[in-house]
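Hey, why these numbers?
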Amino acid sequence: MGKRWRHLVAALTGLGLGLAALGPGLAPGFVLSYDMVFTPDPAFTPMTFGLTGTVPRQVPSDAFVTALATVIPSDAVQKLVLLAIFVMACMSAASLVPSPRLLPRLAAGVCYAWNPFVAERLLLGQWALLLGYAALPWVVASAVRTCERGGTRRLVRALVLAAIGGFAALAMSGLVALVVALASSRSRGGERVNGAERLKGAVRVVGIVVVLSLPWLVPGALRPAGVPGDGTAVDVFAARADTPFGVLGSLLTLGGIWNGETVPRGYGTPVLAGFWLAVVLGSLFAYWKWCREPEWRRGAAVAAAVGFVLAALGAVAPPVLRGAVGLWSGFAVLRDGQQYVAPLAVVVAVGLGVAADKAIGARFPMIAVGAVAAPVLLLPTLAWGAAGDLRAVRYPADWARAREIINSDSAPGDVLVLPWALYRSYPWNHGRRVLDPLPRYLHRRVVVNDALIVGRTTIPAEDPRAIALALAAAHPDSATLRDRDVRYVVVDAETAKYRPIGAVPVLTGPDLAVYRVDGAKAGHEDRVPAAPVIVAWIAASAVVFWSFLIPGTTLGLPLLGSIRRRSPDRLPHHSRRAP
């Protein structure tokens, strides 16, 4: 089978996995789960680019979705993005297996696209992080060759998906690229790389990551309130045991997420967890014993080890991480440690593919078939929308009427949302928790309480506007709200419980109520200056555009094909194995 057909089969396999995983989420409407918020007809607003003074976690992923939604319906955008994650994850991992055989490649692709990490992050709604995860094997393959001709462009292309995902995706992918560039000892053709060349490659990696980070790095750095970094959140976001093997064992099996509500149903039972652990340990052994790819083998292994240490840090040594966050708030990106097991998933997937290839070489093809099927069989509840947890819903008619009323009003003033909490459990969303969609649903400045309550711990609000309106939200009356430059109060849950004193009701429905506050003035909120942000977007966009200015590069899913120039399909003749 030719290489193009192998890539096509891997893509179709990933598509099949995505269809199986999303299931009812593919129906018309939107899948709303925790941080996954898509809305109909999104618009470019100051919040889209991080200009409102809130922490720009949604930059640039919201801009990417909004741009696509100008061409196709926004619910179709969500489905295409989620399916693309599975397609690219399967393709990228399959391309990394040093074998021309199809089954070993599919074993790696299926394992990388269907595992506890993907399931838990999908249930948590972190599609933007999963975009970077899907391209991580391509990052591994390209980071080791940054000093070669065209290597910088290849790495930029490999990091594009992580750049779209934003700060968490790019932090994770950039760390992997840096470690691979520093730790790999051989380059193209198996020639040794000296320390100076590795350092030069690492410097280029850092430069690329910084430039691609500018769209969110600049508004984050220019926030009037500064970059937040709360050390108390270390304990909240630390990895948790979701298997009988404790925190470290759970991380080793690619689980261990901090939020127990996003663990797939049935996962962590002794039998299934035991088999998962056996698969992981066997894959790691196969990677160490039989993976002979000279370029990135060592770098990927070191990246997996570094990632595992970071993933466990908040659980094993929380004072260390709290001290680091206190020293520099930028270390807050390490608080959600479990996301850093992603490079371990790359090594496990490649190891499973190598083991399957070895089984075929030893004339045990059924073992290779079992390796392809094992991830799905050991995590069956990821199928059908994570056993029904991920279902498409439509926003109620009250929401559309409210948007029409508020967006058509030219009077100044912000929108205050009650109840005063960050997450909602709407009946029309089957009680599934979701980040309040109104800041993306409406085109005005929307103020919600962005303080996060996890168990008995409260992480303080970060939005200065939310902090300023906290007392007014507790006892809302029209005079106070008018003085705070609030034009509308929207109650999107428990509608009968909240009614601002003196405000004019303009919409009262079972799912949402809207109250108008007359006399509000234009707010004087401290915002991020637009000019530096525009320059940041131009710089990042120019680097991405430049990376595609290379002969033979095409757009679409195969656009990273040049990264595979030293893929198993192009191994020297003496390195090829018989099909």
